[in-house]
Structures are given as structure tokens and as C-alpha cells.
Amino acid sequence: MIKADVLLGLQWGDEGKGKIVDVLTPVYDIIARFQGGPNAGHTLEFNGIKHVLHTIPSGIFHPTAINVVGNGVVIDPVIFKKEIDALKTLNVDVKTKLLISKRAHLILPTHRLLDAASEAAKGKNKIGSTLKGIGPTYMDKTGRNGLRVGDLETSTFLEKYQTLVEKHKQLLAYHQYDYNLQELEPAWFEALEELKQLQLIESEHYLNTAMQSGKRILAEGAQGSLLDIDFGSYPFVTSSNTICAGASNGLGIAPNRIGNVIGIFKAYCTRVGSGPFPTELNDETGEKIRQMGREFGSTTGRARRTGWLDIPALKYAIMINGVTELMMMKADVLSNFETLQVCTHYTYNGKVIDYLPYSIDPDYLQPVYLDIKGWHCDLTQIDSKEKLPAALMDYIRFIEDAVKTPITIVSVGPDRKQTIKM
Ligand code: GDP
Ligand code: IMO
Ligand code: MG
Predict the structure, then answer these.
(1) Cα 144 to Cα 138, 231, 233, distances in angstroms
(2) Contact assessment for residue 380 and residue 408, using Cβ atoms and an 8 Å cutoff
(3) Rounded to the nearest 10 degrees, what angle do helices 181-197 and 109-122 cross at?
(4) 185's torsion region: left (phi>0), alpha (psi -120 to 50) or beta?
(5) 15 in ligand 1 pocket by Cβ < 6 Å?
(6) pLDDT for the residue 249
(7) For residue 74, what pLDDT is reported?
């Protein structure tokens, strides 16, 4: 039987997953999101249009591909409706091209309130959440209290909703958090009506049957491996398994039915929100990368923290995910540097190591850098591998050698066309 491929981020999110899914969609029949929710912001650019998707898979702009929101995703109906409405203005036929798993969990207005209350209570130790209600919704999922898309078709939906909201009210009272739920509920219930108009399916059956009949599936990840609930820089992580195994859980595709694992990384690193970031640059260089790369969040608009490429962290993500090929994004952003730095090792409790250890807290771990010659030329108009500058080819070979995995695409700009096959 044909196998499904998985595409995911290897750093702290925002690697450029949306762009690459859009570029690769023509060779797939189905694009399926497997985890996360509207904390994600996946940007696509083509024909002068820039579009940001939060819950809907990034294959939606192609004429034939079917897009599935898998059981592992959490859906905020209000944000979902906004996305659908924006797609309708672009004449995207969501009624036929978008399918939603009945097993996906719903983000309630009170989940968002709880997210805000929890962050406020943490004070300076806050996670830096996108405040979309992700953590509280996954807590209710694993706590076996959640509401699912499939519940919308049952007569007990309202009852279940009220029971959950009552529990949330007690938690909000515990946090002494002020809120006005009546202001939020009408839009939520209105958006549910729109959700009900879409195709709600048993996506595990749909996807496995599709594979049996030879259809090609690309599973689209959200966030990045270093934000994974198990393997990320806990507790500064998101609340789902962002790694390859998450595609099995989040879609019902068995591990032995997974084929290629495509790992997306930036030529440098960024992180948004709190938490340790070994190669972070809190100086002019970091600011230069932020400005050149327009590193401001697609979902929250927050400035992203920036730093040099971290090889031990990349190796870790490749190991955990079983990455078979790499795609390097935003090479154009590093065009104006005489010298680049790459973290090849760390010192950890005074010892030099070449792997990502349990704690990456700066009290224990510091990066060790190697200087690399920059390429100092504009890449954004380059359209083939042969025209890439020698210094960039050296950078690519250096990374491939260090992580023992081939780089198959280098991206030199946000547009679909600015994509070079290696
Ligand atoms: P995602 O969450 O992984 O889909 O990534 P985001 O969309 O949040 O952030 C990536 C940003 O970089 C978006 O604004 C993209 O348009 C942009 N982008 C993607 N690839 C490139 C590239 O190769 N060069 C430049 N300059 N920008 C890129
Ligand atoms: P995409 O799919 C970058 C970060 C938040 C915060 C932490 C927890 O666009 O790459 P949450 O809202 O999940 O409770 O936030 O995770 N975060 C992301 N950072 N890209 C994302 O998604 C992110 N989704 C969550 O900034 O630090
Ligand atoms: Mg993003």
C-alpha cells in the first residue's frame, strides 16, 4: 500500500511549513493537518497574494487537492469561520475541498479565558502562549471532558457544553479572573452553525481508504519539534505532539504507513514566546535578522526572537522525527553577512557535548560556534541550483554533512516561485 508523507517544523515553529505545503500540493491528492489549532499561522504567497491559514491545511488553494482537518487538531469555530469566509471571497470551494474529523476537539470561549487566566497567574514565568485556548482544550481532551465536532450532531450537545462551562467557571473563579462570557457566546454558537454546514467525517476511515486506492497524502504539522509536549523545552512548549508520531495519533495513519518525513528548518533560528533559546542574539545582528526576515508572528504579530542555526538541536529533531529529507528556508535573509555563525556543540555543565541534553537552560548550557563565510549577494531572483553562490553551497554541504540528511529544497523568498530544487 502507498504510504503517507509527513511535513513538519524542526525548530520552534514558523519555519515556512505553509509555503512548502503549498509548493508540494500538486503532487498530492490530500493534505491533512494532524495537530495544533489556531495557535498556528501558516503563510502562503503566490500571484502577489499573501494568505495566512490557522486551522485549514495549506493545500486549500490548489484546484483539486482535498484538505482534511484531522482528529488531533483543536478547532475554534469563530476563527475557523473567519478563515472560511476569507477563502470564500477568493472563490475557494470549501464545501467540497475541506473535510473535518468528527473526533477533532472544540475550543470553547471559556478555554480561551482559561488560557489567559493561567498565563496571568504565571506572571513572569508565563509560557508566552498565543492565548488561543490550546492548553486548556488539550487538558480537557486528555481529562476526558472535551467536546468534539461529532457532538454537534447529537441531541445532548448543549447539555455537554453547559456541564463543561460550569467546570470552567469554577476554575476561572479560582483564578479570580474577570470575564464576560455572554459577550463571547453568540459569535461562538453562530460559528458552529457554519461548521455544521461543512463535511464532518470519520477521517481515519477516509484517509486509510484513500491510501488503499492509491491516493497520495501529505500530513501537515504545526508548530515545531522543539515545542513538542514531550521533547520540546518543557514547560515552554505547546500542548500537542508536534513530531512525526503526532501524525499517526492525529490522523489514524499507522506508523508503518508513513513514508517520507520532510523536515523544514530556517537557515537560522527563531522563537516566539518564552523559554530557553541557546543561540539567541540579543544584539544588532539579531535585530538585523529580524528585520531582514520580517520575523513578526503570523498569528499574534509579536516580534520573534532570532539567533544562529543550532546544529545539535537540528540533529535532535531529525532523530526524533526520522527525517528523510530536509528543506532549508529563508536563505535569502542571511545574504548581507560577511561571516555567519553556526552552533556546532554546546558546553553543558562545563563539558563539551554535541547533542541536545535534558536542559537547555542558559545556567547549564552555552553554544559553541563555528564561523562560516557569508555569500553577500541577493538570492531572491535565483531560479536554479547552478546559480547559487559557492559560499551558500558550502553552507548547505556543511549542514548536510553535520546532520547526515540531504537538503532537497532551498527557499530564497516567500513566494511559491522562490523555491530551488537541489
Ligand atoms: P509556518 O508557520 O511554518 O508556516 O511559517 P510562517 O508562515 O509562520 O512564517 C514564515 C514566514 O516566512 C512567512 O511570512 C513566509 O511568507 C516567509 N517565508 C517563507 N519562506 C521564505 C523564504 O525563503 N524567504 C523569506 N524571506 N521569507 C520566507
Ligand atoms: P506555527 O504552526 C511559533 C508557541 C507560542 C508559545 C508556545 C505555547 O505557525 O509554526 P500555545 O498557544 O500553543 O499555548 O503557545 O508555543 N507557538 C508557536 N510558535 N509558531 C507556531 O505555530 C506556534 N504555536 C505556538 O508562542 O511560546
Ligand atoms: Mg507560523
Answers:
(1) 10, 23, 26
(2) no
(3) 130
(4) alpha
(5) yes
(6) 98
(7) 98
Residues 41-47 have a mean pLDDT of 96
The DSSP letter of residue 308 is -
Cis peptide bond prior to 389, omega within 30° of 0: no
Question: Which residues are bridge partners to 148 per DSSP?
Answer: 105
User: Bridge partners of 306?
Assistant: 270
14, 29, 115, 415: which one is catalytic? 14
Q: Residue 258: beta bridge partners?
A: 4
Tell how strand 199-201 and strand 98-101 pair up: parallel
Tens digits of residue pLDDT in 102-134: 999 999 999 999 999 999 999 999 999 999 999
List the beta strands (DSSP E) in 54-208.
Answer: 66-69, 74-75, 98-101, 105-106, 199-201
The finding on whether 45 has its CB within 6 A of some atom of ligand 1 is: yes
Strand partners, 220: 7, 33
Q: By three-state DSSP, how is residue 148 classified?
A: strand
Q: How far apart are CA 216 and CA 210, in angstroms?
A: 8
Q: Which numbered ligand comes closest to the C-alpha of 290?
A: 1
Please check the confidence at residue 2 and state whether its pLDDT lies above 90: yes
C-beta 14 within 6 A of ligand 2: yes
CA of 17 to the centre of ligand 3 (A): 8
- Contacts of residue 256, defined as CB under 8 A and 6 or more positions apart, other chains included, come to none
Summarize pLDDT for 322-340 with one digit per residue, the tens. Answer: 999 999 999 999 999 999 9
CA–CA dist 227, 236 (Å, integer): 7
- The bridge status of strand 339-348 relative to strand 351-353 is antiparallel
- What's the CA gap between 243 and 420, in Å, rounded? 25
**pLDDT value of position 76:** 98
Catalytic residue selected from 5, 29, 42, 415 = 42
Query: How far is C-alpha 394 from the chain's CA centre?
Result: 29
297 has pLDDT over 90: no
- Taking the complete model, does pTM exceed 0.85, yes or no? yes
The predicted model gives 392-411 an average pLDDT of 98
The closest residue, in CA terms, to atom 2 on ligand 1 is: 14
The percent of residues above 70 in pLDDT, for the chain, comes to 100
